[in-house]
Specification:
Length: 562
């Protein structure tokens, strides 16, 4: 064969080889390397079965444990108060300690009250001939209320975001005398994308909580809000929504039915405002709740969203808590007067406060007993007609030995009191292999007993195959959905975040997205970034719970999600 013929033959072989590589490369990519949006439900089911078949799975015999049917006592799980930092230290022996909500006792634009307190402490103000000062402790309003109501720690004073928390403290028999109705101005609101805002205005003529709840019930709006047990804005929104359904009786049948219809259309309830903001960044939500001060300090939101105020004002009232002395009350009054000065109110404005001062709520006052009952109603009705099916996935590898595993057990045994009886749960543990310790079943007393027995039987050792554990949990949930298609699947992973065996996140990322299963992660002295990468796929929460407060945090998480 001549040189020209050989050249043609070589080129032909190369062309065939390239075609084969491209063709089979595409086929391999189609099967194993699709992007998340390319994976169909059928492909995901096949891949799940294939991955599950690669894992050594043991079904352990169930073991019953002793259960405690008494309701959860939040005071039993609260960490030592030192977990919540003192942001301003008192400078004299005559002082008051103030629990302050986080939007004004943090750092930067969230540090207004700290700056006021430091100036107050340096001013040499005297009461009864003694120089006085204040100590500020940075703590969220809902958590602060838990400490006060439980009696685990009592500050001298409390400045929550709004007056609802003061009413709840009073309803539990704790004195809460209002010293000042306002330290600085703020409001809660609904932040709506401009396009959705214009669409709703065009249809309903106005945007308020009533039109929003109607739009959500009609499936026209994807909105998220925050936990009303922990968040001031979340509690405010819950009460406001109930009032729109029946302003004469927030807890009546009409209000309950309206709330159930509304809640059916809510795709997302966040544990914290930070989690809500992160979910909003994905574009998943058309609207979400936020305080105006935070909105003012978020340039990314102002360019693409509209803020609509709702409910009660968030004017940071100041209360004297319990049986405090007249001297301490006078220190509080002097501090409130100091904060109300023009210089410090101007500073508040620079940090985003005191906007929308013309806003006046249309709601009438709500007493603390009604607020507590509204929270209980929310807990019972928040999942609508769809119960939860959850699988807990516990890391029992060698790195969890000792204190981490002890705290994991403690948090699960405490947190299981927050699991609603209408829900179903299963339990999986993993190290090198995966063990199904409790098949999914309705959370009755028998299932609860077996859950407690499974938790108590955990021991640590071996490698860490985190994603194998998640695969098994997803397989269990898909089988449950086949039998009960109306349940909402959820996975809770409890781990230190270190994975050194089994499948990788890339192997299962598409499955998590396609199946739309939120994977909540709780880290124990953890590689929190690794856990966040798992939870971030479907905007679930990732909790960095150290050994001091994991029990309380998991209780909060389960209270919201279960």
């Amino acid at each position: 064969m001549g040189g020209r013929g050989k050249t043609v033959m070589v080129l032909g072989l190369i062309a065939c080889l390239v075609f084969a590589l491209v063709y089979y490369g595409i086929r391999l990519t189609a099967d194993f390397g699709k992007t998340d949006t390319q994976i169909t439900a059928e492909d995901a089911a096949k891949r799940l079965d294939r991955l599950y078949g690669d894992i050594r799975v043991t079904v352990e015999p169930t073991v019953k444990g002793s259960i405690d049917l008494d309701p959860a006592e939040v005071g039993d799980t609260l960490p030592d108060i030192s977990k919540f930092p003192v942001s301003v230290t008192n400078s004299t022996d005559s002082y008051v300690e103030i629990f302050s909500s986080t939007e004004k006792s943090g750092t930067g634009n969230d540090g207004w009250l700290n700056e006021v307190a430091e100036a107050f402490n340096a001013a040499g103000i005297e009461v009864d001939g003694k120089t006085v000062s204040v100590r500020i402790r940075n703590i969220a309003s809902g958590t602060a209320t838990d400490y006060i109501r439980s009696g685990k720690y009592m500050p001298d004073a409390f400045t929550p975001s709004n007056e609802l928390w003061g009413e709840m403290v009073r309803a539990h028999g704790v004195g809460a005398e209002m010293i000042a109705s306002r330290l600085t101005g703020n409001v809660a609101g609904i932040v709506t994308s401009k396009s959705k805002y214009e669409e709703l205005i065009g249809k309903y003529g106005a945007l308020n909580v009533k039109t929003l709840t109607d739009a959500i019930a009609a499936g026209e709006l994807a909105m998220g809000y925050t936990d009303p047990f922990a968040s001031s804005t979340g509690l405010n929104f819950l009460v406001t929504a109930l009032e729109t359904f029946d302003h004469s009786n927030l807890l009546g049948e009409k209000a309950v039915q309206g709330f159930e219809r509304f809640q059916e259309g809510v795709p997302f309830i966040a544990s914290t405002t930070l989690q809500m903001r992160e979910a909003a960044k994905t574009g998943m939500l058309d609207a979400f709740v936020l305080e105006y001060q935070t909105f003012q300090n978020s340039a990314d939101l102002q360019s693409g969203y509209v803020f609509t105020p709702f409910g009660f004002r968030h004017d940071s009232p100041l209360y004297a808590i319990g049986d405090v002395s007249p001297e301490k009350k006078e220190i509080m009054r002097r501090f409130a007067e100091f904060a109300a000065g023009a210089e410090y109110q101007r500073l508040a404005g620079e940090k985003g406060f005191n906007g929308l001062d013309d806003y006046r709520p249309e709601l009438s006052a709500v007493d603390g007993n009604t607020l507590t009952a509204a929270q209980k109603l929310w807990k019972e009705k928040k999942n609508g007609s769809k119960p939860i099916a959850a699988v807990f996935v516990a890391d029992v590898s060698g790195s969890m030995d000792g204190e981490p595993l002890h705290r994991l057990k403690e948090s699960l045994l405490s947190g299981q009191k927050y699991l609603g009886r209408e829900n179903s749960i299963g339990f999986v543990s993993y190290s090198d292999d995966v063990s199904i310790r409790l098949p999914i079943g309705r959370y009755d007393a028998n299932q609860q007993s077996m859950f407690v027995g499974a938790v108590n039987s955990l021991t640590a050792g071996g490698g860490t195959a985190t994603f194998d554990g998640i695969v098994v949990a997803m397989k269990m949930l898909q089988d449950e959905l086949a039998a009960n298609p109306d349940v909402k699947p959820v996975v809770f992973v409890l781990s230190d975040g270190e994975t050194n065996e089994g499948h990788s996140l890339n192997d299962i990322r598409g499955l998590i997205e396609t199946f739309e299963i939120p994977v909540y992660t709780i880290g124990y002295n953890a590689n929190i970034k690794a856990l966040q990468s798992i939870s971030g796929i479907n905007e679930a929460a990732s909790i960095n719970a150290d050994t001091e407060d994991v029990v309380y945090k998991i209780g909060q998480l389960l209270n919201v999600q279960m």
